[in-house]
Structure formats: C-alpha cells, structure tokens
C-alpha cells in the first residue's frame, strides 16, 4: 500500500512539482493551500509524512506544525519544512514545534525524495 504525504504550500506550482516527484516515486499525495486547509485535511486518515512551507497566508507553517502536533493521530507524524527561509531563528522555531527536516527552496526533487525516504515511517 502506498504511503500518503500531505503537502501544505500556498504556491500551486510548487505543490505540483512536489506532487509529481512524490507520485513518481510511488507515494499518494494530498495537497493543502495553507495551514488552515492543512489542518482540515488531517481528518483522522493515515498520513505518513507532512511537507509544509513556512510563509503562508491564514496560518504559517510553524503554527500549522504546532497545531498538527496537538492532534493525537498526527503527534508522531514526521514533518519536513520546504521553504525559502534559511535563517537559524526560523529553523529553531521549527525544531521546537516538531519539524524533523528543513529543505531550502529551490530544491532538487532527488534531494527531497532522499529526505522523505529517511523520515517516512513504515
């Protein structure tokens, strides 16, 4: 059975690039356009990994991670931040919230898939 990954990013083109990379590698993908939509998609179904942007309207990525980690079904779901933010302060905030990996845009799909394969739970 394919593993399911939730992509949370306000950029439709970025979601599309990530979706193509992940589906090409055999993953199922769910897309959300911001943190609020991302939380709506965390409706109890099994999500094996979350990839989120930091800077989004309505709810930023760090707040989204904090809120997702409060949900019992997703408390241990690994989260990758895929963002243009490379600052140490943001990374620290992400780590404190429960982020497992930080990938800076622009990224190579192969690089992202390597990180995904290391973090995705069986």
From TrEMBL:
Cross-referenced SUPFAM superfamilies: CheY-like
Alphabetical UniProt keywords: Phosphoprotein
This protein's name: Response regulator
Residues carrying 4-aspartylphosphate: 53
Species this chain originates from: Candidatus Methylospira mobilis
Family annotation (InterPro entries): Bact_response_regulator, CheY-like_superfamily, Sig_transdc_resp-reg_receiver
Biological-process GO terms, alphabetical: phosphorelay signal transduction system
Response regulatory domain sequence ranges: 4-120
